[in-house]
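anyone else get weird line breaks when pasting these?? whatever heres mine. first is seq + tokens for prot A
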Amino acid sequence: MVTIGEFGRRSGFLPPYIVRRLHESENASLHNIAFDTRELDSGARMAREVRPARIMGRAAMPSVGPQRKVYDLAGNLDPLPGTLSRSEKGQPSGVEVVEEAFEHSGITYNFFKKVLKRESVDNAGHPLISSVNYGVHVANAFWNGVQMVYGSGDGHYFLPFTKSLGICAHEISHGVISFTTNLAYSEQSGALNESFCDVMAVSIEQWHLKQNAADANWALGREVAGPGLGQIDGFRTLTAAKAFEEHVFLGTDPQPKHLDGYDTTSDDHGGVHVNSGIPNHAFYLAAQELGGNVWERATPIWFEAFTGLLNQDASFVDAATATTLAAKRLFSGEPSYATAIADAWRAVGVQSEV
């Protein structure tokens, strides 16, 4: 029997509060999707526990471009990675989910390389491995400490999770964090961990689509919402709005956008997927104030702070302070940038210490 507490331990893109809502649904199909999605626990719980040291023994690879491989699990949960279907020098597979995973990991790699000057997740050419068709009707995706894993959904309520560039970028960004500040996956540091990945995801989507901060859609995951869910903007948004509200199956987006709404729940490692809404909104406000292309202004500041200036147990105040310092460092000739960052955090109830 699956308990509510068990759903609180899930660690994929689709947060536990949504999986729990599906499990509680009177709709038998959604209930079964939630039941199948729980299986990702065996891999996803490891995702926030695997340390980079596990794979640091290999020699660093030269900067020769992305090293992508996509494997097909054909509905199995293990053993990972599955059967090789597409490699960097191989021919297209003709399988849609395989090609989506291959393309999106390449776009993500190119963003980190070209925009942030980072060579893959470890800055040493770590291969970007993906496994598709994980389990049956699994509605989620996760980074397991070494590679990406994608569920295929059921085709009606949830489409394959390979369809979303933002989901791919979000999960690969967990790898970046694990090789840098390795933010602890609980409470405020865990919410910052999730928020960094959302920030990278929207930044990569906007860069790929050539959208500026004012015109972009700041929601994530809308591509995997099947026709059975109806029209939703996404599963979370960095704006002040709710990603979904009084939805017949999903309920209402619970993410707060101000510290006053911080959820002290013990579920989901202390509410890491819920409370990430607060630093997410700070980034959105900063990006709007700075204007222009987010990847040229706000994103480098967040990347500098989150990968180089925070410690494992960082708090929201630490993040506000670090991003303000990063703005001063990266844009020393633009003092208004640091002011905009500090003001954005203050608007969500967090005071920078500089």
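and prot B, same format (seq, then tokens)
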Amino acid sequence: MNSQEYIEVSFRITPYSDENAEILMAELEDVPFESFTCEEPYLKGYIPKEKYNSGMVRLVLDGLDESFGVEFSSALIPPVNWNAVWEQQFSPIVVDNKCTIKAPFHKGLKRTRFNITIEPKMAFGTGHHQTTYMMCRALLDNESSVRGKVVMDMGCGTAILAILAAKMGAAHTYGIDIDAVAAVSAYDNAKINKVSRHVETYCGDASLLQAGKYDVLLANINRNILIQDIPTYSRSLKKGGLLFVSGFYVEDMPMIRGVAERSGLRFASSDSLDGWCCIKFVKS
């Protein structure tokens, strides 16, 4: 992979907002980008040269509604040693002195109760984002509700949350991600952390959820997807099950809470960090 040539596609979003960037990422799900970065006013996507199809990108953009405008350009970037890049950019994360998230090249760290090694690649999250941090904290604060239970990590990315749940003693954890590369990465990380017997990962969306199956469901996804899928999340939870959601701003909490409560979920608590929000619901 180190010698792979990539295309950088720059999407200029007008007006730019994190929400508009998240909407655009969701719309581009059928284009096999391996990662995205946000550099206002741009969303930048990275895709192997041989997989890039500008016509497919134009087709997606032509189908967008008119709430914001997008112009795009592309450029070939030379082969990059991504491992070296990550070594420079990925620092360990410690959540409440209980959980450490690190890469294989981090050595000599003080061990915490739960230690997670993530093979850093071009995408899918490494725990640095505030929402991932809060979701980890939510799990750690609800250990008795995780131990021995069935947990679903919806939009699992690198599977940090699924792996943490497995290490906390969940009977079984599942991860689903719309990106096939992410789903494979998630399983690889489960093997690295020696919990692959307890973690299953799948490529798909909320339609894969099974009714009444899960004790805990974790969804760190953008606001619009949450609003769309919370009714499905609720149906998939056992009575008394817990739903933790993040990926949206504090000001969006009333909207998320309204959808959840109309779907048979009871508000339990919320957390916030740097303007981002995490909410805990209980299935009635």
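btw re prot B: The chain has two domains: 6-80, 124-283. The longest strand covers residues 237-249.
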